[in-house]
Protein: EFMT2 methyltransferase
Organism: Penelope pileata
Amino acid sequence: FAPSALGTRPHWDAAYDRELRAFQETGDAGEIWFGEESMARVIRWLEKQKVPLDSSVLDIGTGNGVLLIELAKNGFTDLTGIDYSPSAIQLSEKVREKEGMSNIKLLVEDFLAPSAALSGFQICIDKGTFDAISLNPDDAVGKRKQYVRSLCSLLKPEGFFLVTSCNWTKEELLNEFREGFEILEELPTPKFCFGGRIGNSVTALVFQRK
């Protein structure tokens, strides 16, 4: 992929500064990456698998934290969201406060260099963070490999990793996560038609840690 500002921390700091101001003015939590359907898709899968509601869940690059709010509304109780942008965590804290979900834990953390406070998760969820890392102008390949190492260290053996991407195909993601993970399922995503060909604009996969 061509390097992009979308892969840099200054971009996201500025974006969440804007969203934080907008929330304070209007109460709007801002953009939901991949839309509400992407959150419903994740929650449906967890419910279908009868994943215990007290399972420890990590939202990687939580942004405004809305996914965690929805998980809490569906009964999940051990929820942690991390983001390397302090403005994103400030925003997610305000959204959490507005929704009265005080049990959600929110931390300023860089997933590529996680602190000792993070470990032993049974479920890790990523909607777009791996995409953003892949666009980093500074050694994106090395950062993708570090992402996989971080995921291996934070996710328990046999834990689930649910990833949603608009940059990577199923085959490419299988290659990126071939070490330490096995594919369990591809989740259905909206299809589009262009030039008579039907394709998926979004890929959503569930992996299990070996």
Strands lie at 56-60, 78-83, 105-108, 121-127, 155-165, 181-187, 191-194, 197-200, 203-209. The chain has a mean pLDDT of 90. Helices lie at 9-26, 35-48, 66-73, 86-99, 129-134, 140-154, 170-176. Residues 5-209 form a domain with the Rossmann fold fold (CATH 3.40.50.150).
